[in-house]
Amino acid sequence: MSVEELKNRVRELEEELKRLKRNESGVVREKIAQMSGEVVDSNPYSRLMALKRMGIVEDYEKIRTHTVAVVGVGGVGSVTAEMLTRCGIGKLLLFDYDKVELANMNRLFFQPHQAGLSKVEAAAHTLQFINPDVTFETHNYNITTVDNFDHFMGRIKNGSLTEGPVDLVLSCVDNFEARMAVNRACNELGQKWFESGVSENAVSGHIQFLIPGETACFDCAPPLIVASQIDERTLKREGVCAASLPTTMGIVAGLLVQNVLKYLLSFGQVSYYLGYNALVDFFPTMTMRPNPHCDDNWCRKRQAEYTEKKANQPVEEKKEEKEEEVVHEDNDWGICLVDDDAGAASEAASAQAPSLADGITFAYERPAPTSAEAGDTVEVDDTSLEELMAKMKEI
Predict the structure, then answer these.
(1) What pTM did the predictor assign?
(2) Which of the residues are catalytic?
């Protein structure tokens, strides 16, 4: 058999495989449609519905009304999209511009026969087969370009099932520029979002919940990273790409989706920042307040709106509680223990330099503000340009 005949045979087999998958998907779609409203053991989603019976969530079926945008369908994003699909999310918007490569096969999602397809196309095909009840919208472009950024913002603003704003944006990208694009869009729209990432050595990762005006945005301070406790100089090697572990990707995706469900279904406590260090199984957590001098003007505007909103909220009257005197059984010297109120001092200090939880550090140091940024004044006299030029010649 010649090479050309072999190629034709491969194409025929691929078309036959696609036809079989379409037929099988149609049968599965029909069966699930018949059971979609039943909370019984034969329903594949009944175990999730049982969360309501157990008192964890008030109404799990609300998940079908929510829309989530996933930006970046790579190691974390693809697994995140799959988990949300299996949980029965109403609609998923998928953004990416990469193609599936054989190097992506160490992920928990993509398959060898999908090599060459765009990641969003491959993801949508697989996810529709898993749960046909979910609505999928795919966009294969780079969100950082001017034209695409405007369209990206439009879909966040009008891409939900009700053609209104999406409920959450999940950033699962692997580069700084794309994260900044998501940050700018969400600040301008006042959109709540989650940022996530895995380190280049694949042994640490994090998720971060960002509420414009209320928490620090991605531009308020240098990005937070989890200290990996190894020599950082060994990470950067010429000609070596970033490492990737399906275990770390899956763990970070799981932490992300868990917090998405807690937010959407109103149960538990959403983590504002949760890190993961695989070397010692360490999970640092913290909250960062916004920087009043953030470079993003939309962030500063949202901060002003949040401050005004807090000021207009009715003040709850606090009941005066009678303080109990501390009694020491054997205290011949009259020593008593009291709490030092260092709240004001610590708050002032945090405004200058936010304190970080143990195990978390900044990715880099922000440059010190220039004299103009610091508010210094420059003295100006009435010397003309000709006089200044004459003085320069005399030097």
Answers:
(1) 0.71
(2) 241
